[in-house]
Amino acid sequence: MQRQTLRNLGVTNICRSVEPSPRPTKECGSVVGTVEPPPNYTVSKKPPSPKSTTTFVDTLPPSIEQPDPAAFAAYAVEVLNDDKRGAGLSNQARVPLLPTVPPFPYFAAEVVRQGVRISWQCPATPMGTPGMKYLFRIYRRADDNAATNKLADLNATECVAGQELLQGQPSSITALAKPVNSFLDETIQWETTYSYRGTVVTVGAVTGKPPLEIEGNDTSEVKVFAHNVFPPPVPAGLEAVFSGPGQPLFVDLIWEPVLDADLAGYNVYRREEGTALVELNAQPVKTPAFRDTQIISGRTYFYCVSAVNKQGNESVPSGEASERVP
After folding, report:
1. For 257-277, what is each residue's pLDDT tens digit?
2. Second-level CATH architecture of 108-226
């Protein structure tokens, strides 16, 4: 089908009104911006695929932001021709006018034995509005996965308004005893690169309705490679017990289990008086027990065990346990 140029297409007006004042109905109201048509714009009876889209950013003056969950900005667009005539307003989109808070500074991530620790700094002076609830929301994305997941919502009210709350000013939020400025991500997969970012979320409660949320600007994204160089904890409680008279010669070893999620098993070592330790197992022992059958009567044996994880990191040996074979 032949496409024809829509020669009389003019600008698109972006209209804004503030509720609870009446929304724009037949007239555009306050025009906060205009968008020019795309160059060489054409139109046909068949809708284009994919559809063309245009965006506009409305920077709100501070006077419009209100600590009132019932306050909204209502937006509509109106397309005009060269004669400044339009077919009417579009459907309207409503945005809460809750105040936003700048992102917390010094956002950082570091690998620790338990996972990745995220840290940030609370503002030096209180920010935000009393009566509002604030969350610090952390997002995580794995480099081998395009999806970004919400990792945590932490109570950040005291960080942004703590001094006001502690001074006893009216608020529906209970102040924390200590600001939370770190989070441990224990859900990582080792040997994976992750990207983290955070944002302060303003939460306003409306009676009988779900809470309203407005996110502020994001922190800078930080990237970290979760490389496991941390050995498991040292096994504890090692005991050595000889089999006893009338039985085949063996020494049973038992110890307390190590509960690390990435534990591969245990290594068992033995020595005699004045000799070096010798590893008794060819592969990591999967359970916290081992039977040594390679023993000789009349000798005393000294044992210790270590824990090893799936990355091959090994703990230092445990304390020794000894047993004499009659």
Report:
1. 999 888 999 999 999 999 999
2. Sandwich (2.60)
